[in-house]
Amino acid sequence: MTISYRNWDSDPVLTVEHLTMRFGGLVAVNDLSFSVGRGDITALIGPNGAGKTTVFNCITGFYKPTTGMMSMRPKDGSLHLLERLPDFVVARKAKVARTFQNIRLFSGMTLLENLLVAQHNPLMIASGMTILGVLGIGGYKTHEREAIERASYWLDKIGLMDRADDPAGDLPYGAQRRLEIARAMCTGPDLLCLDEPAAGLNPRESAELNALLLSIRQDDGTSILLIEHDMSVVMGISDHVVVLEYGTKIADGTPTETRNDPRVIAAYLGVDDEEVEEIEQELDETAGSEGGRA
Amino acid sequence: MNSAVKSKDGAGIDFGRALKDGVIIGIVAFALLGPLVGLKTDQNMANELILQNRLGLAAILSAIIGVGRFLLSAFIYPWIAARGRRTKAAVTLAELEARARVTRGLSVTGLIFLFVYPILIISLFGVQGSIKWVDNYGVQILIYVMLGWGLNIVIGLAGLLDLGYVAFYAVGAYSYALLAINFHLSFWVLLPVAGILAAFWGIILGFPVLRLRGDYLAIVTLAFGEIIRLVLINWKDFSGGSAGISSIPKVTMFGIYSFDMNATNSFIKAFHLSPSSAYYKVFLYYLILLLALLTAFITIRLRRLPIGRAWEALREDEVACRSLGINTTNTKLTAFAIGAMFGGFAGSFFAARQGFVSPESFIFMESAVIVAIVVLGGMGSMIGVALAAVAMIGGTELLRELDFLKLVFGKDFNPDQYRMLLFGLAMVIIMVWKPRGFVSARQPTAFLFKRKTVSGDLVKEGHG
After folding, report:
1. ipTM of the predicted structure?
2. Which of A40, A266, B312, B398 is the most buried (most CB within 10 A)?
């Protein structure tokens, strides 16, 4: 067995250790440990009900885990223990941004406004905690221009520049998903958590999403953790795959390693051999076509 | 194409079906009314129980019901359906923009009108005759415009249903009344103090309450409003109990002139005017107008600042706000405190204007009226809220003048007693006609290329 270079072990941006989350008698996540490498795209996969979204909610502070430790190391070298922080501090200080499985945009606000709300905290300071802003003193105007600049950079990147002044609720589904990613990125995160970003996208949109995620990693140096069912996304762009089943980790490694892991195949596909072979073949094809595109 | 569909539907009034509806309802009504109205037991002179036959009356009533149902089915329902289709299908961006232009034009002309209103009234009705129009209509409506705009921050922007807003109004009024009487401070000093105290109470209420959402928040704020009122009634040493506080000092003209007739620096003596309270009322009118405009100005500015955007984002989706690093508790608290502050300003003005405050002025009904103004106006819209205040407060004041109804219903008829009934009916009609209030469209707070109005259908109402 060859020992490959594992970025997530040597330079993790997020380390999850012994994370357990119980809801009453139900153990949603059971003693889960994994690392997210800095600059990696990490996929968290597993069958429905495996506890993926629960892990997300724990990382982003929406749930308080029963036990476990999650340490986040943003670029500035600080260390944050996420299980101790309230949700909004996770986003503000620990620099973890997230999107939601069911899109949560501010539908009555324009695209630009959505992206400006995401820059709330720096703008709030720029407006002198509102007091100076109301009086019209201080450099709020310049800061707002910068924020709009940043927003238009992201609008350009997701290809929605021409719809900047339309309400977010008017966008088609795929564009809403992209806007939600852009909004999360406007908070300037070091770790971007995406909950099923490709759900409901057609193959073309799904390919666009892959390109967007790769460019986020490359241009902005943001590490990405994503939950996904779409294997073309998982196998095509991720560097590291963690597989959950019934709240327990059953595999952890590169896409190739996990794809060939018999336990993963069993968890995903049941144990019918014929079917396993069929899907394996399909996965090979997708990986092949992704390779061809690249 | 749209109009073609409409005319086809319009021409296709199904008289046959309407007639059938009418007849069936008539028969059902007769079956019900026959025994209920048609037969009446009574006593004759010999104290014997007799049965009166009034089937004719029952038949007439049933016929009226049948015809009414026929008219409903034939004309009213198709008309409502056609209207519904039209509004659903045809609200294009162009139409929204046109409406927004009308709204903007309305606010400019409205503003000019508000500034010349007292002059206009005095020239029409004379100095003494102007009191009713300036005070009962002008000042009264503007107080509610200001309260509406203050509550608009809490309900319209932040989406928090506050049913106890009158509590902050009361805090403002009692702050002015007590501090002015006990410490002889001027209105101009106490106005900001009253605002700060009201905001302080807003924060005190906000801390425990704002973790609640929706109905629970509404109930707790309602209870808070009642607590303040009950404390004012029962803490007699402090607030004078239900007798209230009287002879509250009037507002002075920035300490230069007084509106007391006997004072040495009396405004009336200084300008050798004939003694009348009308001058004070005009002064009060301009004072509340400026206070209301201050509310509007600050609200408009706040909307364009990050805090205002965060309020609206909170109304749209609280969970998303938290995922973006917004401290939702603080954001809600600021909305509560700033809304309460404007309520406090309005309250201290109210106390100075009345010269008398008692807990009677701060009942739940007041809160309900202010909430109704905000909802009716269209949540978040300044001009809509102002229009709703004019319609609701001006409307109820106008109903006091329905003396001509005495000619119709006879001398014993008291139109005042039907005020609330008519008021409720008007509310129901308006909410059917415009379920999202007079002005439901939203103006974006920032734009890259062009400011486009956002249709009210996309804007969420918040859930507490």
Report:
1. 0.84
2. B312
